[in-house]
Amino acid sequence: xxxxxxxxxxxxxxxxxxxxxxxxxxxxxxxxxxxxxxxxxxxxxxxxxxxxxxxxxxxxxxxxxxxxxxxxxxxxxxxxxxxxxxxxxxxxxxxxxxxxxxxxxxxxxxxxxxxxxxxxxxxxxxxxxxxxxxxxxxxxxxxxxxxxxxxxxxxxxxxxxxxxxxxxxxxxxxxxxxxxxxxxxxxxxxxxxxxxxxxxxxxxxxxxxxxxxxxxxxxxxxxxxxxxxxxxxxxxxxxxxxxxxxxxxxxxxxxxxxxxxxx
Length: 263
Description:
- The chain has a single domain (about 5-260), classed as Vaccinia Virus protein VP39 (Rossmann fold, 3-Layer(aba) Sandwich), CATH 3.40.50.150.
- It has ten helices and seven strands.
- It has helices spanning about 5-15, 30, 35-45, 60-70, 90-95, 135-145, 165-175, 190-200, 225, 230-245; strands spanning about 50-55, 70-75, 95-100, 115-120, 145-160, 200-210, 250-260.
């Protein structure tokens, strides 16, 4: 499952129409390519016809991509339905269900036990404490709504030792703002991930770190470079090398865990 160029193009058009939106991840092709591993994981764990959950769908880019792949997608969010869903065809919309969580629903999900064959958390788990929840309760709910053996794919989980996070806090602190402005308040280690998954009865089968280059910084380039597929490919190749050389201090973790049966 390759990154769908239409996703980046549609998000760019939405942002042009409404400059108040901030879709930094799609401001350039090098920035959009930070999701390349997520799309690869989705290609392995979600196929056409599968019933899947996009937990905390945000701006909707990943739900959109899953629908285009042929999955039957439930996009769950505490916010309103994303604008990008209006770009889906009638046939594609028939495979999408948007569910808005009730205010204060920090962990409980309005879905049946074992309803989904796969669930995706893309840049969400690290924020649940900010809305009064906690990571363990959220993971237990995700395991509940997964069918036995179903896959939970978690992506963009901040690394506690990320050099980008550390540099951002220092720069913002020196500028007189809060050290947490624009940074992630909650960050994780491999031990944190394995402990949380074990307590939630999720069996980790794949775990890795990725992302050395600050991808969103490429959005400042001239337009012809932001749209350059050659530049995006070169950035991907460089990042793949650098994230292996400097693995302990890259930006993010991803993991894939399987739902264990409840005794």
